[in-house]
Design brief:
By secondary structure, this protein is mostly helical. The protein has one domain. The chain contains three helices and two strands, in the order H-E-E-H-H. Helix 2 packs antiparallel against helix 3. The longest helix has 17 residues. The relative contact order is 0.17.
Length: 69
């Protein structure tokens, strides 16, 4: 996975995040989308994120993965 610097992260559009309101879970490429899927599962298991929110994030990340094939 390519390193996403703070400067590069700030330049990303809201649409390049699975959770755009909080600018969480960047999904600008295949590697970051896979990472978002893993992290959202961890957060859901810890009770830090609702199932509905996790499902939305997963759907967005999977769309990126599907496009990159």
């Amino acid at each position: 996975m390519t390193k996403l610097t703070a400067t590069a992260r700030k330049k990303l559009k809201k649409s390049q995040f699975a959770e755009p309101g909080d600018r969480k879970y960047p999904i600008e490429d295949k590697a970051h989308a896979k990472n978002a899927l893993s992290r959202v599962t961890q957060q859901e298991n810890k009770g830090n994120i609702s199932k509905a929110a996790a499902d939305k994030i997963r759907a967005k990340a999977r769309r990126v993965l599907k496009k990159s094939k």
